[in-house]
Amino acid sequence: METFDADWLALREPIDQRSRAEALIAPLCETWRARGWSRVLDLGSGAGANLRYLASRLPAGQGWVLVDHDPDHLRTLEHAEVPASVRSLRIVPGDLVHEGLAAIPHADLVTASALLDLVSEDWLRRVVDACAVAARGAHFALSYDGEIRWSADGEPGGQGEEDPDDALVRDAVNAHQTGDKGLGPALGSAAGVVAERLFRRVRYTTQLLPSPWRLGAADAPLVRRLIAGWEAAAATLRPVDAGRIHAWAERRRATVAAGRFTLRVGHRDLLALPPKGS
């Protein structure tokens, strides 16, 4: 599976926290209490951002299992502060296919953050089927949905207005997202919709809500990282347009330097709850 460095994870965590669909927490907690849940499985845990977000919002007495394959992430998790609402925490070194799928029957809630756009439909179907067999709930946050939209702050003509090559780069990035990230062809921007469809197929109740990043001048370090990543991905997919893509990146770096812009990067959060009586 594709891995992400600690600096990137640290940059995005506060933005992820403010972007997530809080409206999903109340129905999740209602089901949690009604079914007497306590066990959470976090797939692709990274540096523990999902734990830090959800643990403070779920009822106390939680037992968490964190699965990740990256040695740097595992070392970070071993030294992470455990939220007060968590009674037990176990870190499992392993991948999403073997250790990840095997852990689902032993959880009540299966969760992940910023993961589904990187996985294949085949792997996701196996997750959904495993959840359905054992009547496990699922909460998957921050799946990229393909939206990259710049707009200006302030007067017309501001630096954030649409660039003629925004669409070229966005379309190339979205195509690049569907490449194999280690589990077969990735779902990319279709991830949230596909996940909801698969859960509905097994009669789950679902809510799929927007959780977009809304970025501005205060988020400049992360936006610069995004531009660099998008430039590399787009140029890889469309080498014939590499010069044009580089020129776009230079213009967008100037946008960030000017500081009068808003950048919306679309994501979606999914809550999937098992049918009553299961």
Could you walk me through the main structural features you see in this protein, from its secondary elements to its overall organization?
The chain is built from ten helices and eight strands. With 278 residues, the chain is α/β, with parallel strands linked by helices. The two termini are 33 Å apart. Helix 6 packs parallel to helix 8, helix 7 (166-176) crosses helix 9 (220-237) and helix 9 (220-237) runs antiparallel to helix 10.
Task: Note the total helix count.
Answer: 10
The number of distinct β-strands equals 8
User: What is the string of helix and strand elements?
Assistant: HHEHEHEHEHEHHEEHHE
Largest sheet, described in full?
A: 8 strands, mixed
- Helix % is 40-55%
Average pLDDT value?
A: 93
Provide the β-strand percentage band: 15-25%
Using only C-alpha atoms, the radius of gyration works out to: 19 Å
Shape: globular
Give the structural class.
alpha/beta
Please write out the topology.
Blueprint: H1 6-19, H2 25-35, E1 39-43, H3 49-55, E2 62-68, H4 71-78, E3 86-93, H5 96-103, E4 109-113, H6 121-134, E5 137-152, H7 166-176, H8 191-201, E6 205-210, E7 213-215, H9 220-237, H10 242-258, E8 261-273
Parallel strand pairs: 1-2, 1-4, 2-3, 4-5
Antiparallel strand pairs: 5-8, 6-8, 7-8
